[in-house]
Design goal:
The protein is 39% helix and 29% strand. It is an alpha+beta fold. The strands form two sheets. A seven-stranded antiparallel β-sheet has the order 1-2-3-7-6-5-4. A seven-stranded antiparallel β-sheet has the order 8-9-10-14-13-12-11, sandwiched between helices.
Length: 340
């Protein structure tokens, strides 16, 4: 009996040990499957929150997005540290004289200002949602502030990356998102693109905003050389609501423009005052068509020809082209005046 026990003890030990190890491994494996690392749990919980949030976003478009942006549940992965609505008066208090450029030159109505912080990445983000009143004013500030060397992306109607972050425009809204901390370029690009895309998605589209630009001659146009000026075009207080298109030429200032005014008398008065400001050499009056009149002369410093035309409430200008191109562009602008 004793010899049998000793024999069993000798041969069973490895089996018992193997059983114990298998049992412990099973417990550990079950534990790992049941309880994931906190970082994974946080990411999965955040994803569920984001999915739920995206289905709950409702924006009618009747109220300014600048005023309601913080209440739309667009940023579940961010903590909103600060929200402030800036109207024209509060903008002047915040940025002093710099507000003139937004208010007087571009029609600024209000701005939703948010300071956000990502819940997982701990990255501060500043968001500006600017309401510019009407769609063409949204494009106006965007076209004036962009640089043709920026990295452009299809967000909203169009957007671009610069050193500070991502900017885009759609309809009457001009949106800037600035990253305040250091982050890997690829990661920061994805973060900004996701945030911007979410905002752009809820803004109503309007394909008619840039329709006037479609009438300008296509040949020789500089890419992204279409600019809208609400006021103070060419540093003149007499030209407002101006559509300008730049063209390729030996002179880098080759362009045409169309200004839309209140009525015919307003346009005639503005042309006279603008011509006086230009102080052209060899100034002559012209009438290329029975309903179109204007002036032609030479720019006093750079010596290129300038033609200014007026028909009804509209004013057109051609400047900076070679002699042959100037004539061709003047004929094209005459046709534009006829249809506008």
């Amino acid at each position: 009996m004793l010899s049998y026990f000793n024999s069993c003890n000798k041969h069973c030990k490895p089996i018992i040990l193997l059983f114990i190890l298998t049992f412990i491994s099973s417990i550990l494996l079950f534990s790992c499957e049941k309880k994931k690392p906190k970082s994974i749990q946080d990411k999965e919980a955040l994803k569920k929150e984001m999915d739920k949030s995206s289905s709950e976003v409702k924006y009618s478009g009747t109220e300014s997005l600048a005023k309601v942006i913080k209440d739309l549940k667009l940023f579940p992965e961010y903590k909103i540290d600060k929200y402030e609505y800036l109207d024209q008066d509060s903008l002047y208090k915040k940025i002093n004289g710099a507000a003139d450029g937004y208010v007087k030159n571009h029609g600024f109505v209000g701005c939703g200002y948010l300071e956000l912080k990502h819940k997982l990445e701990d990255v501060p983000v500043i968001l500006y949602v600017m309401d510019m009143g009407i769609g063409i004013h949204g494009y106006g500030i965007y076209s004036n502030e962009r640089n043709i060397n920026y990295h452009f992306v299809k967000i909203g109607t169009e957007g671009y990356f610069d050193k500070k972050g991502l900017t885009f425009w759609k309809n009457k809204y001009y949106v800037k998102i600035e990253l305040q901390g250091k982050m890997d370029k690829e990661k920061s690009s994805a973060l900004l693109t996701t945030l911007a895309g979410r905002i752009a998605k809820i803004i109503p589209d309007d394909q008619s905003i840039l329709k006037v630009f479609e009438n300008f001659p296509k040949e020789g146009r500089i890419e992204r050389g279409d600019i809208f000026y609400m006021a103070n075009y060419d540093a003149s207080e007499h030209l407002n609501d101006v559509y300008e298109v730049k063209y390729k030429s030996s002179n880098k200032k080759a362009l045409v423009f169309l200004s839309q005014n209140k009525n015919k008398n307003d346009a005639i008065d503005r042309v006279k005052k603008y011509i006086k400001e230009l102080n052209l050499n060899g100034l002559k009056t012209i009438q290329p068509d029975k309903d179109i009149q204007g002036f032609i002369g030479t720019e006093p410093v750079e010596k290129y020809k300038i033609t200014i035309l007026q028909s009804g409430k509209n004013i057109a200008g051609i400047k900076g082209f070679s002699k042959d191109d100037h004539k061709k562009m003047a004929e094209a602008m005459i046709q534009i005046l006829k249809i506008n």
